[in-house]
Design brief:
heterodimer; A: mainly alpha; MetI-like fold; B: alpha+beta; Rossmann fold; OB fold (Dihydrolipoamide Acetyltransferase, E2P); 6-stranded mixed sheet; 6-stranded antiparallel sheet; about 25% helix; elongated; sugar transport (chain A); transport (chain A); BP-dep_ABC_trans_perm (chain A)
Chain lengths: ~270, ~350
């Protein structure tokens, strides 16, 4: 009996420590922006808004959030469009060696965005005059995300029965009409998943924009966070905590919105 | 409405599987035609080739007076009901029924009006705002039929239209479908693996095996005079008795018994020829007493079919089956005698009807 009680106590203590490990930084993120002189401790805030004023006054902070939106939404749109078209073709057309191709793509995806490819990618961007260009960065980020996106998207496409498309075909629908009227609505949860995943990926990406964008006015929030120091060279906790909060809220909101709208359910209804 | 004509239609899949082997078939205008066969016989491939979802390797498909062999499915002026009905899950019933008209660029109000009209005809009026996922199997089938009717196509193609329904609903749907086809008068081809369904619904039917048509005829013709032993064994809810035998002058020696040559084969089988003697259990008269020309043996199994019983006799190690009306079924182990009807018995030589 005592052993059982002791075991339980030990178990819950472990859980509590683990929880604290994840909760305290989050608590800090929520309280520090509203504190006059934030330290690394979690304190009861005095609900000041002057930290927000400081962020608004910072010349690059708010524009960098907009830059993040441009980069991540631009990349997500491109990834969803290209992945959907490629996955549809791969799912519906029989190609010799198709599965080998898919696995090769998936392997490549971890290489392209990986550090190993940084030097060639940088040189490629310089040669193509895409250095210091948000468009160029979007193209490179898209290239990095596409293989995995195609792989996931193909799974969604494979799970939709062909008879829907064949039925539309017999009624005389053109291939583009079939895609617009039938395929896209059926795989919409898949498209949403890929879109959210791409946005989150780009939103948190530090290395690529840091290396490929030199103009501070084009830098996204992830890079700007890195420059928030006081004159003394110390981390500026006022700015960091406030900016960090502003930086995380959009992603959380996006998750909530998409999960409520799509909920990743599939309204089928055919007995098979 | 239009006739469908197939000329030497051939379909070979990559890899060399011959799904259709030079089929010739004419389906006149307004006919309800069944393609029947076991799975893998090519019946669905044939339907899909008529629809244009599969490209023919050789031969021609003619609908009305147009050769449509090389046309896209949408240009053939046909409509198809798929086995899973393929109702678009993201559209309500109105939009599903109106979809073919949307492709033809009919304005939305006209589409809704047509959908409401066809839907009302099939008793769907109170379901027009529902999604397919909220409908029962029978309702989904009627939506699929309504969608096909809205096209006003020259011909309808149904792929296993009843196989997704519950057993009881299937009988109701069978009657409903036959009545609907009769009223619309549109040439309709349907595929089924269920011989009872084909017999019950079709005006005429084709029995297929391994890419070939083994017999074409009305249900009565196919049931009473199967053209070969394959059709004989495939058609009928109880399989036909097919007994090996030898011709001995005016009589046949079958299962150790001597029976007269049936009316249909009289004078057409040479002496000494090896034949197969075929007679349906329904055309056997069972008795407990011996009779001239009856197969005598021991009762091995008695199966209850409802109003009748299927009695299996062991006749000199050959199985002979007979249908017995209720009330007169024998006990297992009894001696029994089954007398074939002369005018219904058939003789097959080399697998073909004599």
């Amino acid at each position: 009996m005592t052993r059982f009680v002791l075991g339980r106590i030990g178990f819950y203590t472990l859980i509590a420590v683990l929880l604290a490990f994840f909760t305290i930084p989050l608590l800090w993120l929520v309280t520090a922006p509203f504190t006059s002189n934030p330290t690394y401790e979690v304190k009861v805030p005095d609900f000041t808004l002057e930290n927000f004023q400081a962020v608004i006054d910072h010349p690059y902070a708010l524009p960098s959030l907009w830059n993040s939106v441009v980069l991540s939404v631009g990349t997500a749109l491109l990834v969803v469009l290209l992945a959907a078209l490629a996955a549809y073709a791969l799912s519906r057309v029989r190609l010799p060696g198709r599965d080998a191709l898919l696995y090769a793509l998936l392997l490549l995806s971890s290489i392209i965005t990986g550090t190993a490819a940084m030097v060639p990618l940088f040189q490629l961007a310089v040669e193509l005059n895409l250095i210091d260009s948000q468009f160029g960065l979007i193209l490179i980020l898209t290239g990095g995300l596409l293989p995995a996106a195609i792989f996931m998207m193909k799974d969604f496409m494979d799970s939709t029965p062909k008879s829907y498309e064949e039925s539309a075909r017999v009624f005389g629908a053109s291939p583009l009409q079939i895609v617009r009227h039938v395929v896209v609505p059926l795989v919409r949860p898949g498209l949403a998943t890929i879109g959210v995943w791409a946005v989150a990926n780009v939103w948190g990406n530090f290395l690529m924009p840091y290396l490929l964008l030199s103009d501070v006015e084009k830098q996204p929030a992830a890079v700007i966070t890195y420059t928030l120091y006081t004159e003394g060279g110390q981390a500026n906790l006022k700015m960091l905590s406030t900016f960090g909060l502003l930086y995380s809220v959009p992603v959380v909101l996006m998750y909530l919105f998409v999960s409520k709208k799509y909920g990743f359910r599939f309204h089928g209804g055919i007995k098979r | 409405m239009a006739a469908i004509e197939l000329r030497a239609l051939t379909k070979v899949y990559p890899g060399g599987v011959k799904a259709l082997d030079a089929l010739d078939l004419t389906i006149p205008e307004g006919e309800f035609f069944a393609l029947l066969g076991p799975s893998g016989c090519g019946k669905t491939t044939l339907l899909r080739t008529i629809a244009g979802l599969e490209t023919a390797t050789g031969g021609a498909v003619v609908i009305g007076d147009r050769d449509v062999t090389n046309l896209q499915p949408g240009a053939r002026d046909i409509a198809m009901v798929f086995q899973d009905y393929a109702l678009f899950p993201h559209m309500d019933v109105t939009d599903n029924i109106g979809y073919p008209l949307r492709i033809k660029k009919v304005a939305k109000p006209a589409r809704r009006e047509k959908a409401a009209e066809v839907g009302a005809r099939l008793g769907l009026d109170h379901l027009m705002d529902r999604r397919p996922g909220q409908l029962s199997g029978g309702q989904q089938q009627r939506v699929a039929l309504a969608r096909v009717m809205a096209t006003q196509a020259q011909a309808f193609l149904f792929d296993e239209p009843l196989s997704n329904l519950d057993a009881r609903l299937r009988l109701e749907a069978r009657t409903f479908l036959k009545k609907l086809q009769r009223e619309l008068g549109v040439t309709t081809v349907f595929v089924t693996h269920d011989q009872a369904e084909a017999l019950a619904m079709a005006d005429r039917m084709a029995v297929m095996e391994a890419g070939h048509i083994r017999q074409i005829g009305t249900p009565a013709e196919v049931f009473q005079r199967p053209a070969n032993t394959f059709v004989a064994s495939f058609i009928g809810s109880t399989p036909m008795n097919l007994l090996d035998g030898v011709v001995r002058g005016d009589t046949l020696e079958v299962a150790g018994h001597s029976v007269a040559v049936p009316t249909s084969a009289k004078g057409r089988v040479p002496d000494g020829a090896e034949i197969v003697y075929g007679v349906r259990p329904e055309y056997m008269t069972y008795a407990a007493e011996p009779a001239e020309g009856a197969f005598g043996g021991k009762v091995a199994i008695v199966e209850n079919l409802g109003a009748t019983h299927l009695v299996t006799l062991d006749v000199n190690d050959v199985t002979v089956q007979a249908i017995v009306p209720e009330g007169s079924e024998p006990a297992i182990g009894d001696d029994g005698y089954a007398l074939p009807r002369h005018d219904r018995a058939l003789v097959y030589r080399n697998g073909e009807l004599v």
